[in-house]
Fold this sequence. Notes:
The chain is of the alpha+beta class. It contains 6 helices and 7 strands.
Amino acid sequence: MDRGYRMLPLTEHTPRIRLDPLTLDDAAAMAALLADDRAAVMNTASFPWPCTAESMRDWVAARLEIVRMFAARRVADGAFVGSVSFRDAAAIGVPTDGKGAVIGYWTGMPFRRQGLTEEATRLLLATIRAEGPAVGWTEAIADIFIENAASRRLVERLGFGFNTEFTSDLPQRGGLRTSVRYRLPLV
Ligand SMILES: CC(C)(COP(=O)(O)OP(=O)(O)OC[C@H]1O[C@@H](n2cnc3c(N)ncnc32)[C@H](O)[C@@H]1OP(=O)(O)O)[C@@H](O)C(=O)NCCC(=O)NCCS
């Protein structure tokens, strides 16, 4: 399927984390990390709940059609740590000056608070930047539920600036939820 973008070889990695394009084969590892972590799922906009190998496989299959997703793996042993993603802001009605990439990220509980998400997200931003000349990404955008202190701290560390606050009706996440939007210029 032509998704309107060009896949580039992914070479970015740090000593601790590498990114690979996410595949259906990663769904079981995702479900294993999220099955007992409802709080994490509720902090994201669209992960399925309950989170089973089957529901996650269906979710990944549908998501791969519309979002660029990468598995974050620990270099030392290949352990699946979490995933990072991005998609065209215009495709989901997020206003942007130029061409915006809306990013997403999560990390399994056992791997948190070690700076691994920060590394994975830096690699994601490097990947988006590397496509800049070909695709023209001008900024990265992160939408975060307002009470998600860890995620807000993460994007602030990455240099994103607060942009705006907005409310969305998300029945699958308890109804009206307030989010904050952060932006990072890429050019
Ligand atoms: C948000 C999330 C990705 C952070 O992952 P992490 O691996 O713990 O993040 P890092 O170790 O890279 O830390 C990033 C910063 O956030 C801070 N942080 C992490 N957990 C925190 C918490 N519970 N409260 C406040 N700050 C926190 C870290 O201390 C660090 O800042 P510092 O170095 O200045 O102290 C992780 O908690 C998660 O996956 N949560 C569930 C899903 C989710 O919320 N995804 C994001 C949706 S927008």
